Amino acid sequence: MKSFIAVALFAGIIAMASAENYACHTNVTVGCTNNVQTPVICHARFGGIDNVESGIQSYINLNLHKSYQYLLMSAFYNSYQKNRPGFNKLYKSMSDRSFDDAIELIKHVTRRGGQVDFRAISQHPNSIAQSKLKLEEDELHSLGIALDIEKTLTADATHVHYQSTHGRPHDPHTAHFVEEKYLGRQADSVRQLSGYVNDLSKIMNQRDPSLGVYLFDQYLEKQ
């Protein structure tokens, strides 16, 4: 009796396995016959990656562009004429961060089976090639530019998160990735820069702000 039950159970399992739709297995098997009409379905794409891929592409481009802007600002304040090591350090760290963020986004897209179109990056209106950054002599206005940049990066990260949570189908993996890596840190960056802008604006309103600006730069260098 026990042997009969075991045989029946084994046969049921085999029947269930046969009923499964092993799409990738079938595709690979057919692919060995060099049938070019067979659709490629054995890939790493799943969930709502199709809904968010273009948004991530745009965010990659934006990070590369802003990294370039911050790098120019850093070099500007590192010259012997300006000699602001604190501002140089601040903008260099922000340039490195934006570049690293672009690399992480590229890894995320390729891990999910997507591709990054670098031609689109060079042709985008916010690309490095199209950049026309006006370098400000005034340290206060440079902080204003940095605050605008951070708000733009935050808005783009929020847009990607919205696409991944409201698209059909959803892409919870991308939503979690953006929320954990970008949104909280961007909020902190906006808060920090807005504080710098308000502090330095009070210094600049003095009759002779030169000493105050120097001390503020020293403060930035120690951060």
Automatic annotation (TrEMBL):
GO cellular component: cytoplasm
The keyword Cell membrane is annotated on this UniProt entry: no
Gene3D superfamilies documented for this protein: 1.20.1260.10
Signal peptide: 1-19
GO biological process terms, semicolon-separated: intracellular iron ion homeostasis; iron ion transport
Domain Ferritin-like diiron, first and last residues per copy: 46-204
InterPro entries: Ferritin, Ferritin-like, Ferritin-like_diiron, Ferritin-like_SF, Ferritin_DPS_dom
Residues involved in Fe cation binding: E150, Q186
Keyword field contains Signal: yes
GO molecular function, one term: ferric iron binding
This protein's UniProt keywords: Iron, Iron storage, Metal-binding, Signal
Function summary: Stores iron in a soluble, non-toxic, readily available form. Important for iron homeostasis. Iron is taken up in the ferrous form and deposited as ferric hydroxides after oxidation.
Family affiliation: Belongs to the ferritin family.
Protein name from the UniProt record: Ferritin
Gene: FRI
